[in-house]
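Memo to structure team: turn this sequence into structure tokens by end of day. - J.P.
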Amino acid sequence: MVTFTDPIHGKIRIPDAFNAVLQSAALTRLRNIRQLGFTLATYPGAVHTRYEHTLGTVAVLNQLFTQFGVHGKDIIDRFTLYALISEVGIYPLSYSTRAIFTRYGYDKRSYATKVYTLDLARKLSWMAVDPKELWEPNQRKADWFAPVQSIPAFAYMDPIKLASTVDYVLRDSYYTGRYAGAFDYRYFASMRVDANVDELRESLRALHRAVNALNATYGDPLRRALTALLTILVDRLVEAGHLAVDSWKDESAFLSLDDDEFLSQIGDAVARAQSAGDSFVADLFLIVTQRAAPIIVPPDTGAATAEDIAAEHGLPAERVFLSTSESEGRIGFRMFGIDYANLDAAIASEMFQACTGLTTDTHAVDSLRGVIVPRIT
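Reply from structure team:
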């Protein structure tokens, strides 16, 4: 067994047969991709990585095997593989750059499929794998997972999605310091395959209420501001011809395109833009790399201009951004595996109410409203 010591799950043991996968370029790249991207700006302890989360997903999956009475080696091996490669193809800085990559026609699943073929398939020659099952939730469902699938609000889940959600609730709570006490993992882990459906539903709703609580970090104003600013910066560099995003189409790029490499490419493009006379991109780059903080101004400031606000704070006008819903729509909001135009749209959705048991006028969602995102003035 390959053993890892984890602050959330303790000892995580993975069969030796998967050691080549653990050591592959596709997975080791995840060691340098932050799980929460720009959330680090507000929660400095959120330095955990997609590699850690991958291992945690395997740990929770092993617990599910115990709960659901799964003992067959073939099933355990197949789903362990699904868990191990669940984050392959993730964007640099995780979902803080998702809007950028999708804008230019790249998506996680297509990257993951290509990377699997390029780097992982030969390492798994000992195992019969149907490529359709690797990242397709409906293909990854199994009879042993039927109790969860029988609950309509959670029919979108497969075992890997559930294991991943449990781990990121536990892990993100730990590293951000925001205890998501709505979910009792010990109680959930004690439920057997023949658990009362109502009890199982309520335990899963508690899990999603914890996700909702953590949306205060995912929807953090500074995180979303930095995400929007990086999107604006990349668009500006691409439009001026200083950044060649076509190079990202090569799947081999995603064996090395981690946080450092991505920001290095942006930095080189910024240097070229500066040489061409665009000094504004340098100010943006200082902000997105968190060497300087933006002044984010709510839209109810009145007629004050960026220059007025900058003068009040003794800062250059380039540091001031007026928030609008226009920018919120630019980067969107993802909840329960579904993309929404913004956070309010996610909270108002039927999916939110079905999964959490909360309504839009419930006090528990009040803290998630009024998310501030910026617009260059």
